[in-house]
Amino acid sequence: MAASPDGMALVAADLVKTYSQGRGKPPLRALDGLTFQTEEGTVFGLLGPNGAGKSTTVKILSTLSRADSGIATVAGIDVAKHPGRARSAIGFVDQKQVSDPMDTGVENLVLAGQLHGMSTRAARSRAGELLERFALAGAARRQVKTYSGGMARKLDVAIGLMHRPQVLFLDEPTTGLDPEARAEMWAEIERMSREERMTVLLTTHYLEEADRLASRLAIVDAGRVVTEGTPEQLKSELRGDAVVIELHEASVIAQVLESLDRLGGFREVVAEGRAVRARVDGGGAALPLVLAALDAEGVSVASATVSRPSLDDVYLAHTGHSFAAVHAGSSADARTDLEEAAA
Ligand SMILES: Nc1ncnc2c1ncn2[C@@H]1O[C@H](COP(=O)(O)OP(=O)(O)OP(=O)(O)O)[C@@H](O)[C@H]1O
Fold first, then answer.
1. Any bridge partners for residue 19, and if so which?
2. Is any atom of ligand 1 closer than 6 Å to the C-beta of 56?
3. Residue 54 CB–ligand 1 contact under 6 Å
4. Bigger pLDDT: 196 vs 261
5. The domain at 239-308 falls in which architecture?
6. Whose CA is nearest to atom 17 of ligand 1?
7. Residue 223 CA: which ligand 1 atom is closest?
8. In a mutational test of the pocket of ligand 1, which residue from 17, 19, 65 has the highest number of ligand atoms less than 8 Å from its CB?
9. Which of 40, 273, 315, 338 has CB 3.0 to 4.6 Å from 9, enough for a Cys bridge?
10. CB atoms < 10 A from the CB of 100, how many?
């Protein structure tokens, strides 16, 4: 399998991309020197708040958009110089359903194979293989409109795999799936990368998903990679434990911040809604002191927890906001495509 000479399946080097925002407004710098690389046969996670530049990065790497400057390669192929070759090396699974609901599962797969230049015979054989693998063989001849959400999603991934790509782009593969379907999808993604040495670029709104699947992660903010490493490395870089104090009322936040300041030793103190988060060494010993101080001041605490650093803490430390708060219920992207409109 031809990867780039240095074994990197994906390279994004100093990517810059600006979008026109319409007449009279300055262009928006969506990517500002974004850089990362991914080894062959691994799952690489891209995390970041809405608007950080993840989709723009994926669009450039998958030839759907062009960078203003910088280099992007997929399996050693420069995507700007050889988009056709790059396209045959990648599979792209969009957030939106790509299969035709009126066609059967097998019809969708065979059509996808034919669009990639496969003969009908080869496409049928590959479709059969994938239907088996995704436990969809029993539903192969049913219209996709009769499938559950999990089945339709698996079919979409199978469509992306028809032409045996070296690199698969998965944009929020489990958004909207129930826990069982999500677990099944995770197992399949793990299997693909392990057994077939397939490289997967995963963008996700679920930290748990990134933690479980990605061997390396990049956190993207304002068009740049702000930190990168294995989930374990990123977590171990954070010193101390995470303390979260939830209050019954937001009006006492200032009092809590003052108490923490007085007690000393608390770092990265952030107030969010009715909660205060902070880091402290020896959280187990520090928490009772905080609770005693707040009790003495008559501040009513709804809950208080202390935990080892999580990926959410990594995210918070690098972006200044918690992943859960940013992504609560927000994945729909309703902006108008100004770039296309301006073209
Ligand atoms: N076609 C476009 N025209 C104009 N602005 C755009 C276009 N596409 C993206 N943007 C802007 O570029 C920035 C980066 O967007 P991008 O979609 O890459 O972020 P993202 O990290 O994928 O966010 P999300 O999680 O919301 O999908 C945002 O400010 C966005 O509004």
1. 28
2. yes
3. yes
4. 261
5. 2-Layer Sandwich (3.30)
6. 55
7. 14
8. 19
9. 40
10. 13
- Mean pLDDT score across all residues of the chain: 87
Do 323 and 207 meet the contact criterion of CB atoms below 8 Å apart? yes
Q: ipTM value, please give it.
A: 0.95
C-alpha to C-alpha distance for 276 and 246, rounded to whole angstroms: 7
State the distance from the centre of ligand 1 to the C-alpha of 44, rounded, in angstroms. Answer: 20
The second-level CATH assignment, the architecture, of 8-235 is 3-Layer(aba) Sandwich (3.40)
What stretch(es) of the chain map to CATH 3.30.70.980? 239-308
* Dihedral sign from CA coordinates of 139, 145, 151, 153: positive
Question: Is the beta carbon of 18 within 6 A of some atom in ligand 1?
Answer: no
Q: Determine which residue's CA is closest to atom 28 belonging to ligand 1.
A: 51
Determine if ligand 1 sits within 6 Å of the CB of residue 218. no
Contact of 266 with 243, CB cutoff 8 Å: yes
How confident is the model over 262-306, as pLDDT tens digits? 999 998 899 988 999 998 888 888 999 999 999 999 999 999 999
Give CATH 3.40.50.300 domain extents, the chain.
8-235
What gap in Å lies between CA 332 and CA 84, rounded to an integer? 30
- CA–centroid distance, 52 to ligand 1, in Å, is 7
pTM exceeds 0.80 for this model = no
Residue 285's CB: how many other CB atoms inside 10 A?
11
What would the two tokens of residue 141 be?
Answer: 């001849």
What are the CA-CA distances from residue 229 to residues 125, 222, 263 (Å)? 39, 19, 33
> CA nearest 10: which of 62, 47, 49?
62
Q: Which residues pair with 34 in a beta bridge?
A: 15
- The encoded tokens of residue 133 equal 């693998």
How far is the C-alpha of 265 from the C-alpha of 341, rounded, in Å? 52
